[in-house]
Amino acid sequence: MPSIKNKNVLITGGAGFIGSHLTDMLLKSGVGKVVIVDNFFLGKMSNLKDALTNYENIKIYRDDARNFGVMQAIIQNEEIEVVFNLATIALNYSFFNPFDAYMVNVEIANTLLELQKLGQYKTLIHSSSSEAYGTALYSPMDENHPLNPTTPYAAGKAAADLMIQSFYNVLNLDIAIIRPFNNYGPRQNDKQLAAIIPLTARRIQNGERPVIEGTGKQTRDFIYVEDTARAFVMAYENENSRGKVINLGSGIETTIHELIQNISEYYDYKGEIEFRPERKADVNRLCASALLANEILGFEPRVGLKDGLKLTLDWYNEHAGKDIESNG
Ligand SMILES: NC(=O)c1ccc[n+]([C@@H]2O[C@H](COP(=O)([O-])OP(=O)(O)OC[C@H]3O[C@@H](n4cnc5c(N)ncnc54)[C@H](O)[C@@H]3O)[C@@H](O)[C@H]2O)c1
User: Fold this and answer.
1) Is the pTM of this model over 0.90?
2) What are phi and psi of 27, to 5 degrees?
3) Structural domains in the chain?
């Protein structure tokens, strides 16, 4: 089985939320170097502060991972062996610019596959999303669940996955696809296009009411970001992952209403929750079957929602008002 130790690794989207935690984990694991390609759409240099303070074997390119020439030059010059593909544009961007929200996922996958086919690097570990499934037709959702994406972001994720799987089938490239459910943790974007946990934390901190779009009965399966980063490394180091799609979730379903209540309790917020109309194209139910990740990788999440939320909200408290840097 391959070891990540001493490998030269490239992370697309490495200045983002999950990418920056993966960067930290790879550096701790003794990689040769981490090379980040991020266009800083939502990425931030502050996400890489720990990595840059503690390690010298990290390099950052402010560039677009869609660009074949750019990626070829970086991969060649940095002698990259492994690519973790995490670059994307947040789901909420689908409502503003559906074309780019879709295409960015497909175009980056296309560039990475072409370069891999040319033998420019060996292994691709690609990040899908549970959004590719759409709402659960049955629960828990295993990897054979149909793909019914409802937003352009999700359609782009599903399209990229299908493209990557089909390339694996015809070219037998060294590829694994990891399909995380809802991630949360320190550094998740809390500004424009933010997801529900940072958004609610900031609202309560600013004296505003937390907001639920729809009934609040919609469910998600939350996984702590450090668990996800660990699973990405485990997927690289276990060749049984190749050619497969592997869900990453806790297998526990939480309603949005419960989540908002948990956040409210943390802040001792006893006021009202504001209910707004359901978001167009919102997914109703998501819950992972975590069996395959356990069978193939021996992966089990270590941080439950209660502890993970505390770690996350403590972090948002420490960074309230400080982290004013927006895009890199
Ligand atoms: N956050 C979640 O809950 C979640 C759940 C399932 C899957 N995922 C997947 O995990 C991966 C990382 O997501 P995240 O939550 O860290 O998002 P994020 O927005 O924090 O990170 C994505 C990064 O990609 C960068 N980026 C965007 N377009 C780019 C381009 N053309 N070239 C280079 N960089 C570009 C952004 O600047 C950002 O730093 C994505 O593939 C996402 O689909 C996330």
Assistant:
1) yes
2) -65, -40
3) 8-318 (3.40.50.720)
